[in-house]
Specification:
The complex is a heterodimer of chains A (109) and B (118). By secondary structure, chain A is an all-beta fold. Chain A is built from no helices and eleven strands. The N and C termini of chain B lie far apart (35 Å). In chain B, 34% of the residues are buried. Chain B is mostly beta strands. Classes of the chains: A mainly beta (109), B mainly beta (118).
């Protein structure tokens, strides 16, 4: 079992829908990252959080440390949101990130 | 400074050859990370530096792999005697850690160097 599990693996939705991507992890962490990867490989860091909730534009990230679970939400989704969204955790005491396999999101017009 | 730069963007090589990738981080960032990503998988941590010191290495980093950051600025990742299993995207990222005990800031990734070993 991977230390970081994401669901769903693939998600296709219509423009405007509310999107939720989930991340569960099995190790103690000091921080969790949500990343966006576009075709061609470029990765953009969306959020880094260790508790609570963060919001940036139409994106919201939450984390529940007790339940070892985080969610990434996209409101009013748009085709340009189509990308792979990756959850990554920084384990306590270490610094290299452990990544999930990613969620491939397609938003159709 | 426009972000993290990686060079080359693509490298095709024959099995057994050596390859070297270069990463230029954001200039004020003291932490530099190397990751590897194979097709359909999330990235995997390889190693990271704080300034010129290599602080952590993954067991994925076999003795054919070596990384350096001699002056605490750019870094190189060399793969000797490449194998077909080394084919992957090699990603570099940098961040700023302000003081001991502080968490690192958000990572900035480069566009990656794609290696194909024939």
């Amino acid at each position: 079992k991977n230390e970081v599990e994401q669901s769903p693996q693939n998600l296709t939705a219509q423009e405007g829908e509310f999107i939720t991507i989930n991340c569960s992890y099995s190790v103690g962490i000091s921080a969790l990252h949500w990343l966006q990867q576009h075709p061609g490989g470029g990765i953009v860091s969306l959020f880094m959080l260790s508790s609570g909730k963060k919001k940036h534009g139409r994106l919201i990230a939450t984390i529940n440390i007790q339940e070892k679970h985080s969610s990434l939400h996209i409101t009013a989704s748009h085709p340009r949101d189509s990308a792979v969204y990756i959850c990554a955790v920084r384990r306590g005491g270490a610094d290299g990130l452990t990544f999930g396999k990613g969620t491939h999101l397609i938003i159709q017009p | 400074d426009t972000g993290v730069s990686q060079d080359p963007r693509h490298k095709i090589t024959k099995r057994g050859q050596n390859v070297t990738f270069r990463c230029d981080p954001i200039s004020e960032h003291n932490r530099l990370y190397w990751y590897r990503q194979t097709l359909g998988q999330g990235p995997e941590f390889l190693t990271y530096f704080q300034n010129e010191a290599q602080l952590e290495k993954s067991r994925l980093l076999s003795n054919r792999f070596s990384a350096e950051r001699p002056k605490g600025s750019f870094s190189t990742l060399e793969i000797q005697r490449t194998e077909q299993g080394d084919s992957a995207m090699y990603l570099c990222a940098s961040s700023l850690r302000l003081f001991v005990g502080a968490g690192a800031n958000v990572l900035t990734f480069g566009a990656g160097s794609r290696l194909t070993v024939l």
